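Meet the record:
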Amino acid sequence: MEETTKNNKSLHIIEAIDYTGRGDIIQACMALAEKVKYGVIQPEDIDENVFQQELETKCSEFPNPDLMIRTGGKYSIDNFMIWQMAYTELYFVENDDLEFNKTSFVEALDSYQKRSRRFGGK
């Protein structure tokens, strides 16, 4: 898949293997604490952008997800990208990964297009 899609610019698919959102946040905090300890940065320099640079996903390299499609009839995010998904729209389907197909994907995109995103606002 990587080779086939390497030139795509508008759609990013992130697949996480052996990844935990909490673990990612902890390691980012530890990295920042180390930088403060050695005077690389000051505590007041830490903001969302600085923090995101320490995450394994490096949110400046890949944008935060707009849509998360959860397959397999599960209705949780299971510790997946919990920082990055603050404003992500969630879509749940009963199909498992093997049954999820182009039609399922189009249905998810159609549902997403009908939503009014407020990014935390009312």
Observations:
- Residues 16 and 84 are 13 Å apart (CA to CA).
- The first strand starts at residue 67 and ends at 70.
- The beta strands are 67-70, 89-92.
- The longest helix spans residues 21-37.
